[in-house]
């Protein structure tokens, strides 16, 4: 492959003028095919090491940043994996892959964004609206696959061999899993776009919690789980908030727990937060409700806790297996924010994992 010819196809990156910068050519999947000497110097490694690696091995969230830089024709600030080293990255997309131009900005303020905060918010909103508008395009073919595979499993397409039945079950399970993932992605995009505005009214919080527990029966039936739903003494059942958003918060939290545990206790306690907790979390005085959702067998590591509510943080990390959980909890966090509340999680070895939610019982903003 003639890399010199490929590099000179670029118009936005002048290769000769870019010689003081690090220049890397990689395929669409991020596999590095060519680098200049400056790249090895900037990345503090050898050219041979670079050319036997993937760009994601060196740059955090690399492929997403490359996509954004191409889509909006703007340079982006990148960060080396496991270091506080920053580069300004320009990208040119060509048929064979991407040409990346890295400029050292470590003597500048690394927190300076490549685009303004307002522009970044607009980009994020447009991205979320795009995903929501395409929701049916994602889900319609998946629903068809799930439906027809179920019909074949039920014998409506005729007799099948044992091996064929096995394949159909695999197709049905994987397409159902993908449908669930798509639903969670769309839900996250919706909450990030703040499409749902709270509609405050009076409702019975204990009735709402019990209805959510009953709704999830299929997720815990057959498991060795003990439920404990309690209301603080002298606290009223009725509260003023948005019942639909509250139900969505609890539904997503219980899904996260029930998909991860097979035994132990799951508790939901409704009470009033202590003054010291409000002070610790920087919450002003007022009337609040605190919901504690606990699991005695959900075990979390320190790395789990760091990225618990941030799917973007783990997309290129070893914790990627927890991406769906992080997406679901990011949705919960967005919904809690919609109600002007706050949420956090605490977990200790051999003790409960507790999710704490504080919601104002008025429309006062935290």
Question: Structural class of the secondary elements?
Answer: alpha+beta
Query: Roughly how many Å is the radius of gyration?
Result: 25 Å
Question: How far is it from the N-terminal to the C-terminal residue, by CA?
Answer: 58 Å
> Which stretches of 5+ consecutive residues score pLDDT under 50?
9-18, 109-115
Q: How many domain regions?
A: 3
Average predicted confidence as pLDDT: 82
Helix content bin: 40-55%
H/I helix tally: 14
Major β-sheet profile: 5 strands, antiparallel
Can you identify the CATH class of the largest domain? Alpha Beta
CATH homology superfamily name of the largest domain: Histidine kinase-like ATPase, C-terminal domain
Oligomer type: single chain
Beta fraction of the residues? 15-25%
What is the string of SSEs from the N terminus onward?
Answer: HEEHHHEEEHHHEHHEEHEHEHHHEE
Shape: globular
Total strand count, please?
Answer: 12
Compact overview of the structure:
With 366 residues, the protein is an alpha+beta fold. It has helices at residues 3-7, 37-43, 47-50, 62-72, 117-133, 135-153, 162-192, 205-215, 217-220, 243-258, 275-280, 302-306, 311-314, 323-338, and strands spanning 22-26, 32-35, 76-79, 86-94, 97-104, 201-204, 224-231, 238-241, 263-271, 288-295, 342-347, 353-360. The chain contains 14 helices and 12 strands.
């Amino acid at each position: 492959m003639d890399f010199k010819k490929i590099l000179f196809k670029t118009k936005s990156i002048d290769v000769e003028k870019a010689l003081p910068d690090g220049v890397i050519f990689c395929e669409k999947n991020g596999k590095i095919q060519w680098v200049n000497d400056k790249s090895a110097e900037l990345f503090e490694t050898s050219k041979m090491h670079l050319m036997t690696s993937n760009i994601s091995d060196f740059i955090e969230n690399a492929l997403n940043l490359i996509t954004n830089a191409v889509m909006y024709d703007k340079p982006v600030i990148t960060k080396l994996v496991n270091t506080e080293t920053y580069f300004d990255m320009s990208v040119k997309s060509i048929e064979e892959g991407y040409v990346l131009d890295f400029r050292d900005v470590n003597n500048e303020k690394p927190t300076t964004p490549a685009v303004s905060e307002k522009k970044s918010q607009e980009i994020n909103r447009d991205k979320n609206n795009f995903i929501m508008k395409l929701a049916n395009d994602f889900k319609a073919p998946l629903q068809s696959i799930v439906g027809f595979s179920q019909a074949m499993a039920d014998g409506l397409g005729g007799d099948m061999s044992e091996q064929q039945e096995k394949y159909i079950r695999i197709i049905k399970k994987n397409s159902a899993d993908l449908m669930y993932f798509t639903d969670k992605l769309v839900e996250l995009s919706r909450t990030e776009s703040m499409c749902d505005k709270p509609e405050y009214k009076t409702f019975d919080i204990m009735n709402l919690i019990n209805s959510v527990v009953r709704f999830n029966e299929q997720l815990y039936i057959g498991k060795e789980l003990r439920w404990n739903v309690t209301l603080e003494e002298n606290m009223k059942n009725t509260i003023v908030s948005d019942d639909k958003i509250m139900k969505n918060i609890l539904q997503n939290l219980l899904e996260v727990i029930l998909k991860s545990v097979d035994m132990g206790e799951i508790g939901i306690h409704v009470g009033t937060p202590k003054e010291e907790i409000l002070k610790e979390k920087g919450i002003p005085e007022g009337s609040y409700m605190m919901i504690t959702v606990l699991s005695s067998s959900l075990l979390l590591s320190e790395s789990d806790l760091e990225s618990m509510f941030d799917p973007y943080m783990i997309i290129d990390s070893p914790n990627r297996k927890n991406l769906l959980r992080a997406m679901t909890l990011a949705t919960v966090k967005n919904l809690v924010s919609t109600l002007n509340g706050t949420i956090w999680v605490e977990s200790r070895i051999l003790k409960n994992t507790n999710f704490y939610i504080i919601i104002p019982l008025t429309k006062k903003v935290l």
